[in-house]
Design goal:
Elements (H helix, E strand, L loop, with lengths): L3 E4 L6 H16 L4 E5 L5 H9 L6 E2 L18 E2 L4 H11 L3 E5 L5 E6 H10 L4 E5 H7 L2 E5 L4 E8 L4 H7 L6 E5 L3 H9 L4 E4 L7 H10 L2 E5 L3 H8 L17 E2 L4 H11 L3 E5 L5 E6 L10 E5 L15 E7 L13 E4 L5 H12 L5 H14 L10 H14 L3 H13 L6 H7 L1 E6 L2 E9 L3 H6 L1 H10 L5 E10 L4 E6 L4 H7 L9 E4 L4 H14 L1
Parallel strand pairs: 1-2, 1-16, 2-3, 4-5, 9-10, 10-11, 11-12, 13-14, 16-17, 17-18, 20-21
Antiparallel strand pairs: 5-6, 7-9, 8-12, 14-15, 19-20, 21-22, 22-23
Length: about 550
């Protein structure tokens, strides 16, 4: 069943990670094969929540770009190196391709051949030396097996076109000779006596019982064919192993995880039309043609806790967004067809997902309820944030009953686990919970850390300011770090130097300094971002 990836934003917090897990459970319960993913490393708070309720961290998703495994390529387009040129040509014709990867008996890629090289071989190649198998020859010349003693047949092709007496006296045969002959018993007997490698009797002719018995004793391979001498000569050279015209022992290949962009770039650079597709250990699984570049399946994705392109996975424009569940303002992501979009003005994405459980009449398991409750408490600052709604409180109350946890006690555990900044650099703290916003062409970066170690940050504020100033080189007009004090319900603010005027005017501050305290400001969505965007608009 096709998989649907569910993930939050690039700087995963507890709400986004839990939302991906909880919604994946719900989708699977409804018959949709969904898996949770994260777009970055999880923070200490989220790790505590997952460990506390017995969940593994979701796997990392690097991008959702179209990969070779998403493209529709021919899974039958390869040929064994010991197949005949005739079989290779017929396969190319049936598959409407001009070339084929060559594989060994274990399907490991050993080369590549094409129609152009087959034509060269037939015109300029050494067509009188046959290197093939008995069965290849039998198939190509439409023969009848008479005597078979060797699988491999290798030797010089000789046609009995002389008079019998001339042939037996002038033509030297040996065990490496392959003789094509009609109803000429003397020549056949001579060939049997010299123990040639193979006798092909053409024109529907036969051999006497006496000569067959002698051939059996001398272990001479024999094939009958109804074709005439001319047709047999022209066909038998096509019985040669296709590996004899291996044009490239190391062709350009693509693996499952290579992207469609990689393929198109390589095709434009090298100018080839066909490329083998291989596994990591170089087993060939088919061939991708340049004309297949627009034949692919997009990865299906569901976005939770975000709808901004900058916050989402790389390559999102190449994926099929089937659903978005979020509690933020509408962002920059668009779709080319209608989708399920659930956006609600609540404090936590998991409040919406809990509502989806109820609407779908799916029971929330105890452990899922535990992580969902944790997400609600985290995103609403233990239901104290101004973003907290009646729905958040109802969801928290219901989820607490299901998982058997006390809201106050669990909330303290969560914030205690996540608030320590021990061992983290200023850069890591700024980007721990960081989101980017745009006003026209201007970038605004806002980091937020909720911690009990506020004094430790303020004592090193010069280092934090240096990091924020560096962000101007990355194109940020404004770079901020809000240090949220959950106990006193406010935040301290650090900012890049060039942002001072914007901060002063946006927050109506009569006096401003690095580390200024903003009483009651704890919500990035409702209290930190709107004043800045409102000021920039004016």
């Amino acid at each position: 069943m096709e998989v649907t990836y569910i993930f939050g934003h690039k700087k995963p917090d507890t709400d986004s990670v839990v939302a991906s897990i909880a919604l994946s459970y719900l989708k699977n319960a409804l018959g949709i094969n969904a898996v949770p993913r994260v777009l970055g490393g999880i923070n200490k708070e989220t790790k505590f929540v997952l460990d506390y309720f017995g969940f593994k961290e979701p796997k990392y998703l690097n991008d959702v770009k179209i990969e070779i495994k998403d493209m529709i390529y021919n899974t039958k387009a390869f040929i064994n190196e010991n197949s005949s040129i005739y079989d290779a040509f017929n396969m190319m014709q049936s598959l409407s391709v001009t070339g084929l990867p060559i594989v060994d008996s274990n399907r490991y890629l050993v080369g590549y051949t094409n129609l152009k090289e087959i034509a060269k071989f037939l015109i300029n190649g050494d067509i009188y030396n046959i290197h093939s198998t008995y069965n290849n020859i039998l198939n190509v010349i439409e023969g009848e097996e008479v005597l078979k003693f060797n699988d491999n047949i290798e030797g010089l092709l000789i046609t009995a076109t002389y008079r019998s007496s001339t042939f037996t006296s002038e033509i030297k045969l040996d065990s490496n000779s392959i003789v094509i002959v009609g109803d000429r018993q003397n020549i056949i007997e001579y060939a049997i006596d010299t123990k040639v490698k193979l006798i092909v009797v053409v024109g529907g002719s036969s051999i006497s019982v006496e000569l067959l018995n002698k051939a059996r004793l001398n272990k001479v391979n024999i094939i009958f064919t109804k074709n005439n001498t001319y047709t047999t000569i022209n066909k038998i050279k096509l019985a040669n192993f296709v590996k004899l015209i291996n044009t490239n022992e190391n062709p350009i290949t693509f693996g499952y995880s290579d992207t469609r962009d990689d393929f198109i770039d390589a095709a434009n650079h090298f100018g080839h039309t066909n490329y083998p597709v291989v596994t990591k250990d170089n087993k060939c699984v088919g061939m991708l043609r340049l004309v297949d570049a627009n034949n692919y399946k997009k990865k299906k994705v569901i976005l939770v806790d975000h709808n901004e392109l900058e916050q989402s996975v790389d390559g999102l424009e190449e994926a099929e967004i089937v659903e978005i569940i979020d509690h933020h303002n509408l962002g920059t992501i668009g779709t080319n067809k209608p989708i399920n979009f659930r956006s609600m003005p609540v404090g936590c994405t998991n409040t919406i997902i809990y509502k989806l459980f109820l609407e779908s009449n799916v029971r929330v398991p105890k452990e899922i309820a535990g992580i969902m409750l944790s997400a609600v408490l985290s995103d609403t600052l233990m239901l104290k944030s101004p973003t907290t709604t009646k729905l958040d409180r109802e969801a928290a109350s219901d989820l607490a009953k299901i998982c058997g946890e006390d809201i106050e006690s669990l909330g303290i555990k969560i914030f205690k686990a996540g608030s320590s900044i021990k061992g983290l650099s200023p850069n890591e703290i700024i980007y721990n919970d960081f989101k980017e916003f745009k006003h026209e062409d201007e970038r605004i970066g806002i980091g937020q850390i909720t911690t009990l170690d506020i004094e430790d940050i303020l004592e090193q504020k010069d280092e934090y300011i240096r990091e924020l100033n560096k962000m101007e080189q990355d194109g940020y007009k404004l770079a901020l770090l809000f240090i949220t004090d959950i106990v006193n319900n406010g935040s301290y603010l650090l900012y890049n130097n060039k942002g001072e005027s914007i901060i002063s005017n946006a927050y109506n501050l009569s006096s401003i300094h690095e580390g200024v305290y903003l009483d009651g400001v704890v919500s990035r969505k409702k209290q930190m971002v709107p004043p800045i965007l409102d000021y920039l608009e004016k």
